[in-house]
Write a structure and sequence with these properties.
The protein is an all-alpha fold and 295 residues long. The protein has 14 helices and no strands. The protein is globular, with a radius of gyration of 19 Å. The relative contact order is 0.11. The model has no long low-confidence stretch (mean pLDDT 89).
């Protein structure tokens, strides 16, 4: 699997697997962890391609092709790396379908594909803003940015990977855009932009929650970051409330949602632990997956 990744992709397979342990840690769900790691690798490739690598025409062709789930009329004219990315994603989902076919729940893969398409569209919209050096209104940015962090798609992927969670009721709940998923999305977006701000600015990437808040409310960077931290605190309270009060949803799905919130807290614990895994993240991975536990 790793040998098929595009050459520019940041190799984060170990990081993906580590963070997923916050969501799926039981020994009996090893297959789900492997599938989920592959899904998160796709998210990373999509993010790298739109965020850092593709030109506007290339980004448009990839978005159109993934929306169609087949190459669009301009894909033949695109560079080889873009064709590779498209076919890598399509081939990985074909692998998911083959793996899950015996379970008789074809809608689980289809539901995840539809959520992935929304993530791709959000990545494309952010890329257009970035190429135009456009800083939108804070609310407009958050509406797109919360989709781009892929919490809904990730929860749909958990359902897909975990056969006993892949019920039509679970997908209907996700399609209803529940408050719990929205609050987790907001937490991820805000923390990503707070701790990834300097990296964004170092490469001239201006659509960021900090910049949007600064521009809209005429405040300094420090004040904007302070306000965003306050929003994260409010969102954490809202997540806890939703976890305690949400009814009619599988406890397994709620447990996975809680694990995702934990994963975000670990990833952005005073730093950007995914893009810059050196330091704490590397130490955590060694402690969890490499170093033996002394008895």
């Amino acid at each position: 699997f790793a040998s098929n990744l595009p050459p520019y992709f940041k190799d984060r397979l170990a990081e993906n697997y580590f963070f997923i342990l916050a969501v799926l840690f039981e020994p009996q769900v090893s297959r789900a962890r492997i599938m989920y790691t592959k899904f998160y690798t796709i998210l990373g490739i999509v993010d790298d391609t739109f965020d850092r690598y593709a030109s506007p025409p290339e980004a448009s062709s990839l978005q159109n092709s993934l929306e169609r789930w087949a190459p669009d009329h301009t894909m033949d004219q695109q560079p080889d790396y873009l064709k590779f990315v498209l076919h890598f994603i399509l081939d990985t989902y074909e692998e998911f379908e083959r793996e899950l076919k015996p379970e008789g729940k074809p809608y689980s893969v289809k539901a995840n594909i539809e959520e992935l398409k929304k993530v791709v569209k959000a990545n494309f919209d952010l890329a257009k803003w970035a190429h135009a050096a456009h800083v939108p209104r804070f609310e407009e940015y958050m509406e797109v940015g919360e989709v781009e962090v892929a919490v809904y798609a990730a929860l749909a992927a958990i359902c897909m990977c975990m056969g006993d969670m892949a019920t039509k009721e679970a997908y209907e709940w996700l399609k209803s855009k529940p408050k719990l998923a929205k609050f987790i999305s907001a937490k991820c977006r805000l923390m990503n932009d707070i701790y990834g701000y300097e990296d964004d600015m170092s490469r001239g990437y201006v659509p960021n929650a900090v910049n949007c808040y600064m521009k809209q409310y005429g405040v300094t960077k420090q004040e904007a970051i302070r306000k965003l931290h306050e929003m994260v605190e409010d969102v954490d309270k809202a997540i806890n409330e939703e976890l305690l009060t949400t009814m009619g949803v599988s406890r397994l799905l709620l447990k996975a949602s809680m694990g995702m919130a934990k994963m975000i807290a670990i990833c952005y614990n005073g730093y950007e632990g995914f893009t810059r895994p050196e330091g704490k993240t590397k130490e955590y991975i060694s402690l969890m997956l490499v170093d033996q536990i002394r008895l």
